[in-house]
């Protein structure tokens, strides 16, 4: 288990905060009572509505997970951060036998895997400097179960989950809490693009993150589809993964 991490009056940094799960997390945390949110996006104009609604409590900041310099520059300009939520990711999704598979895999690994490593490297020193804090990684149920049409995406998320486990072990030495989040089908633009319907709202992910941090959970499977998988996986996670 993790140590409980309270969210009131915290300073939060969220990647991909302009839509989908990232935007839902930002809105939910601001309504919950965090002090400030850095909205890390590639296009600052895409968070103008959040700036208008949460005047003086949000700070747009440029970040592209495919540009390492932008990650370290963002960290240098967010020295007061307590909580990092690495939400940004991409889904190309290719069958492993398709001619597009290698290109898809390379692109998804650049963002979903190498981006995670760069985020951890850039922000771990800040979190340590500020007392430990917390690092939240958005993984997926695809990190545990693959299907042919999304094989490259699932491979990238499996790699990200493996790295999250190692990052949790390393950051525990500086008293930084690490939470791995595994949503199933959630109503986002990404979900619509691959034909998912009847998905649960992105707010379920935001609310589950709050609860998991405050009770000290290292994993969270937020929606009903994800919870079905958690029912089968929990014993292994508790007895093998979380003991590290």
Automatic annotation (TrEMBL):
Keywords: Oxidoreductase. The keyword Oxidoreductase applies. Pfam families: adh_short. GO terms for cellular component: cytosol. Residues 10-189 form the Ketoreductase domain. It comes from the Bacteria. SMART domains: PKS_KR. The keyword Iron-sulfur does not apply. GO terms for molecular function: oxidoreductase activity. Belongs to the short-chain dehydrogenases/reductases (SDR) family. This is Short-chain dehydrogenase of various substrate specificity. It comes from Methylophaga aminisulfidivorans MP.
């Amino acid at each position: 288990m993790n140590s409980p991490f309270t969210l009131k009056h915290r300073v939060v940094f969220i990647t991909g905060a302009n839509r989908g799960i990232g935007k839902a997390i930002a809105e939910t945390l601001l309504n919950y009572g965090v002090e400030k949110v850095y909205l890390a996006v590639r296009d600052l104009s895409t968070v103008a509505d959040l700036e208008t609604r949460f005047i003086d409590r949000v700070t747009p900041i440029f970040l592209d997970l495919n540009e390492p310099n932008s990650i370290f520059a963002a960290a240098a300009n967010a020295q007061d951060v307590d909580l990092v939520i690495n939400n940004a990711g991409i889904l190309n999704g290719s069958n492993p036998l398709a001619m597009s598979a290698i290109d898809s895999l390379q692109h998804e690994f650049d963002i979903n895997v190498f981006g995670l490593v760069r985020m951890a490297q850039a922000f771990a020193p800040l979190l340590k400097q500020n007392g430990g804090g917390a690092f939240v990684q958005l993984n997926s149920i695809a990190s545990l179960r693959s299907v042919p049409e999304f094989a490259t995406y699932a491979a990238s998320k499996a790699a990200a989950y493996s790295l999250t486990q190692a990052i949790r072990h390393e950051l525990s030495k500086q008293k930084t809490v690490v939470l791995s989040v595994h949503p199933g089908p959630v109503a986002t633009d990404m979900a619509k693009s691959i034909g998912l319907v009847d998905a649960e709202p992105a707010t379920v992910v935001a609310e589950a993150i709050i609860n998991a941090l405050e009770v000290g959970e290292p994993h969270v499977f937020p929606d009903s589809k994800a919870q079905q998988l958690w029912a089968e996986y929990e014993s292994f996670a508790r007895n093998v993964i979380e003991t590290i």
